[in-house]
Specification:
The protein is an alpha/beta fold. It has two domains: 137 residues, Alpha-Beta Complex (Aspartate Aminotransferase, domain 1); 255 residues, Aspartate Aminotransferase, domain 2, CATH 3.40.640. The protein is built from 15 helices and 17 strands. Pfam families: Aminotran_5 (PF00266).
């Protein structure tokens, strides 16, 4: 049985008050809170176990290396990768996508080659491809969502042409909550010789992920949304694609030998992990992923689906709330505006007075905002510790905002 109150007790910040009200934290899409065991692991790593990894022979270095490298296997298990060496650890999805842009796409794509994107992509899955457009003449092809915010995988596949080399697609929109059928896209694209990068920043939080079943070439995750520390994350890379890549960051750990006239690179995945990593951050991420897997990703998905349904029902009763994206297959992420002149920032400020934390703005999704025809939205995004009672608090706060701005 899913005991949400027991889970909430694991997160110390959820017991605090904001503006004299109990905190209702609905900004999980931006960054999730951390359970006590993650906080304890970080503290212990700094207070009792800290040293640099890989190159030392003393006790603390060996211990830190063991703690750090164990996380690679944890991430592989979380994503059901066939081998932990298919995992490149990094600071998060942004670094992961840039690794593919510089290490795989830049050496391979030429002027006129195409990259397909959906209009829902986060800027982290847009800007690196614009670099290739600006510097190498790569063409970006955009696929739009349907009126309800859904994305037909066939529309993505229909965009493939003879010069298409890559599809870069989110599994779950950080704005609309739309869940994309990336498995169909990946399997069909492979038949046509097109690589697929999946941005799993939101998808891996809300549902079980099996990269072998999905069939993707690249799958990026970011730790701070997965109840782990900021500056932690990883990208799964299919071994055939990893063999095609060149390193784009040089430094320690990614080499075997350096001489005046040559350099011998380390084996993958170390070849793509230059410099001193976020040791403690990654240790914390490993604990966070173990925490999620102990609860069970299927159980988390079921709990959040119930929250999604309840929130949909409650917001439907407010005919002055405009929810962006009504896809039947979506996560518990709700972006909305209020009828009238109230700006999303003003709405967010009113909700904050009631202790409700939401995000306001463009959510790093400029093309989607243009597509929707809105300047900004408020976004309430739910996590594994949120409750139906918090949905009610959100609705009460929205009613107050409506009264003030009517």
């Amino acid at each position: 049985m899913y005991d949400v109150e027991k889970i909430r007790a694991d997160f110390p910040i959820l017991s605090r008050q904001v503006n004299g009200k109990p905190l209702t934290y609905l900004d999980n899409g931006a960054s999730a809170q951390k359970p006590q065991m993650v906080i304890d692991a970080i503290t212990r790593a700094y207070a009792e176990e800290y040293s640099n990894v890989h190159r030392g022979l003393h006790y603390l270095s060996n211990l830190a290396t063991e703690r750090y490298e164990t996380v690679r296997g944890t991430i592989a298990r979380f994503l059901n990768a066939a081998d932990e060496n298919h995992i490149v650890m990094n600071s998060g999805t942004t670094e992961g996508i840039n690794t593919i842009a510089y290490g795989w796409a830049m050496p391979r794509l030429q002027s006129g080659d195409e990259i397909i994107l959906s209009v829902m992509e986060h800027h982290a899955n847009i800007v690196p491809w614009h670099f290739l457009r600006e510097r190498q003449g790569v063409v970006l092809k955009w696929v739009e969502t349907a009126a309800d915010g859904s994305l037909d995988p066939q529309a993505v596949l229909d965009a493939i042409g003879p010069k298409t080399k890559l599809i870069a697609i989110t599994q779950c929109s950080n704005v609309l909550g739309t869940i994309v059928d990336v498995k169909t896209i990946c399997h069909e694209a492979r038949e046509r010789g097109v690589a697929v990068l999946v941005d799993g920043s939101q998808g891996a939080v809300h549902m079980p992920v099996d990269v072998q079943d999905i069939g993707c070439d690249f799958y990026a995750i970011t730790g701070h949304k997965l109840y782990g520390p900021s500056s932690s994350g990883a990208i799964y890379i299919r071994p055939e694609r990893m063999a095609e890549m060149r390193p784009f960051m040089g430094g320690g750990d990614m080499i075997k030998e350096v001489a005046r006239d040559q350099v011998i690179y380390n084996d993958a995945p170390m070849k793509f992990e230059a410099g001193t990593p976020g040791i403690v951050q990654m240790i914390g991420l490993g604990v966070a992923l173990d925490y999620m897997m102990d609860i069970g990703m299927e159980n988390i998905a079921e709990h959040e689906a119930a929250l999604k349904d309840y929130t949909t029902e409650r917001l439907a009763g407010l005919n002055w709330v405009n929810v962006q994206g009504q896809s039947a297959d979506k996560a518990a992420i709700f972006s909305f505006t209020l009828e009238g002149a109230a700006h999303a920032h003003d709405i967010s400020t009113i909700l904050d007075k009631k202790g409700v934390a939401v995000r306001a703005g463009q959510h790093c999704a400029g093309p989607l905002m243009d597509h929707l025809g809105v300047a900004a939205t408020c976004r309430a995004s739910f996590g594994l510790y949120n409750t139906k009672e918090e949905v009610d608090v959100l609705v009460d706060a929205l009613e107050l905002a409506h009264e003030l701005f009517a």
